[in-house]
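Let's practice the habit of predicting before peeking. Look at the sequence and jot down your guess about where helices and strands might fall. Then scroll down.
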Amino acid sequence: MKLAVSGKGGVGKTTFSALLARALNEQGKRVLAIDADPDANLAAALGIADAENIIPISEMKELIFERTGAQPGTIGGFFSLNPKVDDLPDALSARFENIKLMRLGSVKKGGSGCLCPESALLKALVTHIVLLRDEVVIMDMEAGIEHLGRATAKAVDRLIVVVEPGRRSIDTAEHIRRLATEIKLSRISVVGNKIRTPKDEAFLREHLQDFEFLGFLPYDDALIEADVNGYSPFEADSRSKAIVMEIIGNLT
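Done guessing? Here is the structure:
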């Protein structure tokens, strides 16, 4: 499976991504987790030690120069648009049991895009991961899908949008779907999070009627405690784990 997870900041998509990865790991699956959201820390949510010391690939200046032939921070000029990346997932990943984690980082850009070596390396890496790797791939993305292109979108089995009861979260889900449609990514599902009452679930169903819902995760103090105390939400005493297991069953 190749899964991309997106949603408005703060809705809990990194928590969901971590629960998903850890649940698959518990089932004996090999998982490649990609942190593609500069504002998130998927490594910590997975329970990887010293997560704060993981260097994003976009900041590995020597590697970028070696693979593209150009210095990071330069725009235009000559550099490789198809750098060698097939060895990077195994060489640069942090690990937790059957899970490998790569942190992509962000590319500082102006206007509508960036023709720069950092961007070329990340694009080639994501394309390789989605098209050619044989692990389960889980990409924790920004509130968008900027790391995906038309070629990779065709190979993504599902784009999962995490939403919470609220107007802005719903608007973001609609925005993400518009972006996905532009690159022909039509397999889009929703996971409701921070559900306190049946009214919250009904609110999401009413306002996202033409989305497929995979499940609903409760608002859970145990998950908040896990985040505050720096351990994985999968280690918390929460029924969210059982719900995520059910979601995996619906995906496979």
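How did you do? The mean pLDDT is 92.
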